[in-house]
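$ run holo --ligand "nicotinamide-adenine-dinucleotide" --emit tokens
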Amino acid sequence: MLKIGVFGLNRGLDYAKDFMHLDCEIVAVCENRENVVNAALKVLPTDVKVYNNFDEFIEHDMDAVVLANFFHEHTPYAIRCFEKGLHVFSECMAASTMAECVELLRGFEKYKDRGSIYMLAENYPKMKFNREMKRVVEGGTLGKILYAEGEYNHPGRPNYAEGLQEYTYFDKHWRSYLPRTYYLTHSLGPIMWLTGATPKRVSAFATFNPPSDDVAAPSHNADKVASMLMQNDDGSVFRIVGCSAFGARHDSYRVCGTKGQIENLRGMGEQVMLRYSPWYVPEGMKENNLYTPYFEDSENDFVRKSGHGGGDYFTAKCFLDAIKENRQPEFPFDVYSGVTMAVISILAHRSVLENGAPYDIPDLKNEDERKKWENDNLSPFHYSDGRTPTIPCCSHPDYKPSEKNMELYHKLLLEELEIATDKSHLR
Ligand SMILES: NC(=O)c1ccc[n+]([C@@H]2O[C@H](COP(=O)([O-])OP(=O)(O)OC[C@H]3O[C@@H](n4cnc5c(N)ncnc54)[C@H](O)[C@@H]3O)[C@@H](O)[C@H]2O)c1
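-- output --
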């Protein structure tokens, strides 16, 4: 039985449940917030060892670590795991600076002989409609893929105390300093997986829309969406929005080829629309095909309830399959693709700050490229070790929340609430 440790028990608990269902043992957890530990202990095995310090946690006898700590602090911990030969399942940004992108790859290669499998825990590709799009793309009826789109749109309810307490629970939390391009794996990951293409150049623009004073808004970023355009290694083009916040929640994807195109329909559950040019309709199909995909393995009760339409379960399974078969995970969940996505997030934001100036995406497999970026530590975030932002997180660099925005935020943080254990409605 594979022994797993979980670092960070907010999101980490979701994956702990998936791994337990997949016959793994959760042997240790590391979390320094007592209320979060107590809630998790209701679900975790009674003999799980609880640590509040990573240095002690990593000494525990285990095979793999789920990195579900702060979004921008995964790299140093991943490298500590490589050093000990532990497998790493990293939620979701692989590295938060260009220098960290280089460090992660160098660390991975330095300890390669110790056998760590690294997986970027990007879960949206394995949502049911995306699995169907993959099946259709691989079937070849769309022809050569020319263009794809991905949108992760997640507006938040204003003045929602429960959401603020769950996700933005202190002033310098990463969510309050997150540029719109950084959380892009949920939009880019699926289309890289669907098409096999890797972006080589990016340009981006953001929409700035500051909140009014009657909203609890601790974020130092008032951009609501950043749209990114990419030219890929196979000549195709991607258009994505990172983590955006405009009216009506959706995760939507579209892949277009020379003969046809497929997309999931916004606001229509798991339905997909598969369309062909009239002269390319394959035998047995219609020109326009609207349907809900069916996969037998998605119908299992646990899988249906697992987060993100079963995406979490299949992502966890993908990691375990790679470990069982002693290989790195499939594209684009391997460490090199994970770093490529991080590089795009970082350079797309620089493009936003420079009025859409295009940036080439360096191939950090190449040591000469690594040398160019190894000392680039620019970051929009506050770090646990006291480092402070060195680049603005917003397209309007001087933006900061008003005193009233912050006053209301602090008031709602202190509001007494019964925090729901089922958090799925918040994501
Ligand atoms: N794939 C998805 O659908 C999805 C959904 C939610 C979150 N996430 C990812 O999960 C990660 C965590 O996000 P979150 O929503 O849980 O919020 P979060 O970042 O606020 O939670 C991180 C948790 O780690 C703990 N932690 C951080 N550093 C620690 C340390 N040194 N010692 C002990 N405990 C420490 C914190 O106390 C906190 O409970 C992020 O990378 C986020 O992007 C992914």
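-- notes --
DSSP finds 13 helices and 15 strands in the chain.
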